[in-house]
């Protein structure tokens, strides 16, 4: 695998690091392909029960590598929709639909698609020094990689429009206070806290986590009646898992459960 992404397998989880620090981990094609391969490997590996996504150096990710977008190379009317459908959209869906928790440790600036890739993860922790920037309007583009979706759903139209139209750098603390991310933590605590979460998830009921993700994703478009049906179906499935049996047995025996993730 290319070193534009580092993929470290640990006991029960993986740490995946965007690794083009001199470009603030902006995406080129090689980094896209390497990240996709790393996430595919995490998805297919039952021993990997959680993923931490982070960035090398002082940034998390500055979105698309703009040195690959020199107008002289692209010509008069480039079709950026092709990049979205080839790379960014599949990446967003790959992160969101991974059947195990994905923790994003935003170690520094997250701009453009970099901000929205972070928001596609299940739990977003950010270093207090990190900023989230919908940088698109600065270069005459529209927020992509789910940006208009996450911002509008999490923050409402007023804040979504202000962030998108002004490219205002949102601090990690404001992002947490506004409900865009889970928590802002001291910079030096970021990786320890992300790893602690991944370690806990690696010992948890992985299949129930996957079903929980499904239920929460469905909730954003369902009526209450529809969502109750979704919960019924997913609970039926969870109730047939080994982890449910183990969870109840452990509770009754007053011991810690030993979940196998199935
Ligand atoms: O094109 C398509 O296919 C459509 C898809 C689009 C998706 C997108 O993500 S569009 C948005 C692209 N991203 C941006 O517009 C962000 C551009 N970067 C910035 O605005 C700033 O770099 C930051 C606000 C992120 C950070 O600022 P700062 O002052 O902390 O760092 P810096 O000095 O600007 O950047 C450090 C280096 O990284 C610098 O290189 P140098 O001068 O040291 O050699 C800079 O050029 C490089 N860098 C930062 N972002 C990018 C980048 N190089 C290429 N592409 C970048 N996106």
UniProtKB/TrEMBL annotation:
Keywords (A to Z) from UniProt: Isomerase, Lyase
Keyword Isomerase appears in the UniProt entry: yes
Regions crossing the membrane: none
Record-level Gene Ontology MF annotations: hydro-lyase activity; isomerase activity
GO terms under biological process: phenylacetate catabolic process
Pfam hit, one: ECH_1
Presence of the UniProt keyword Membrane in the record: no
Protein family: Belongs to the enoyl-CoA hydratase/isomerase family.
Protein name: 2-(1,2-epoxy-1,2-dihydrophenyl)acetyl-CoA isomerase
């Amino acid at each position: 695998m290319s070193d534009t992404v580092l993929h470290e397998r640990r006991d029960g989880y993986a740490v995946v690091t965007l690794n083009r620090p001199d470009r603030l981990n902006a995406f080129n094609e090689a980094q896209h392909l390497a990240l996709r391969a790393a996430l595919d490997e995490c998805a297919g590996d039952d021993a990997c029960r959680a993923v931490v996504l982070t960035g090398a150096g002082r940034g998390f990710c500055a979105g698309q590598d703009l040195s690959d977008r020199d107008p002289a190379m692209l010509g008069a009317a480039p079709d950026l929709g092709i990049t979205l459908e080839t790379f960014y959209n599949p990446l967003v869906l790959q992160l969101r639909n991974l059947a195990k928790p994905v923790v994003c440790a935003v170690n520094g600036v997250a701009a453009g698609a970099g901000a929205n890739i972070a928001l596609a993860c299940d739990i977003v922790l950010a270093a207090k020094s990190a900023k989230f920037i919908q940088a698109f309007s600065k270069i005459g583009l529209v927020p992509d990689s789910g940006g208009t979706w996450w911002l509008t759903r999490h923050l409402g139209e007023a804040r979504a429009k202000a962030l998108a139209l002004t490219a205002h750098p949102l601090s990690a603390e404001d992002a947490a206070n506004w409900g865009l991310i889970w928590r802002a933590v001291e910079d030096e605590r970021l990786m320890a806290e992300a790893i602690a979460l991944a370690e806990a998830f690696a010992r948890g009921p992985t299949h129930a986590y996957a079903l929980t993700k499904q239920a929460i994703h469905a909730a954003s478009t369902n009526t209450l009646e529809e969502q109750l049906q979704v919960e019924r179906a997913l609970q039926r499935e969870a109730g047939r898992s080994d982890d449910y049996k183990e969870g109840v047995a452990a509770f009754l025996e007053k011991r810690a459960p030993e979940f196998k993730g199935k």
